[in-house]
Amino acid sequence: MWIVGHVNSYQYLGGYLMSTYMANKDTIERKWYILDAAGKPLGRTAATAAAILRGKHKPVYTPHVDCGDFVIVLNAEKAVLTGNKLEQKYYRTHSGYPGGLKEVKYKRLMAEKPEFAFQVAVKGMLAKNKLRKAQLKRLKVFRGPEHKHTAQKPEIWE
């Protein structure tokens, strides 16, 4: 029997009743992953971290549910910016008042606060909705190779 369209969120295909699995916050299992940023481009590592935080690597990925995992980023100070980005790229903030623009070159930002630079990169790659704040809380960035989350038994992401 072939029925075109949806019937109470079910669809008949070739005589079989099909339904789409939708994850919810009670069925999500979270894991911990380690990303090593040493010698890798900042943007590529940030894109991988954003995909893990959203849960896009899971077969049960549901866009409107926060189903991602925890991410530990190590060696943030050794991340590489390609091209002339260290000299030409700026991190800008504005207070909202006239003349309130503040600019910091990425060369200085990566020297002083590489963790913050990484968090800004990942934040820009996450979906701009209510889930972003919760997803960013699961991002743990460390300047060097040591971290304090060994009790969670994180796996190394390749």
Classify the helix fraction into a percent range: 25-40%
What is the string of helix and strand elements?
A: EEEHEHEEHHHEE
The fraction of residues in strands falls at: 15-25%
Q: What is the CATH architecture term?
A: Alpha-Beta Complex
- What would the average pLDDT be, to the nearest integer? 92
Low-confidence stretches: none
The CATH top-level class label: Alpha Beta
Question: What can be said about the biggest beta sheet?
Answer: 4 strands, parallel
**Total strand count, please?**
8
The CATH topology corresponds to Ribosomal Protein L13p, Chain: A
Q: What strand order characterises the main sheet?
A: 7-4-3-8
Distance between the termini: 46 Å
Shape: globular
Structural class: alpha/beta
| Number of H/I helices | 5
Q: Radius of gyration in whole Å, from Cα?
A: 20 Å
Number of domains: 1
CATH superfamily placement: Ribosomal protein L13
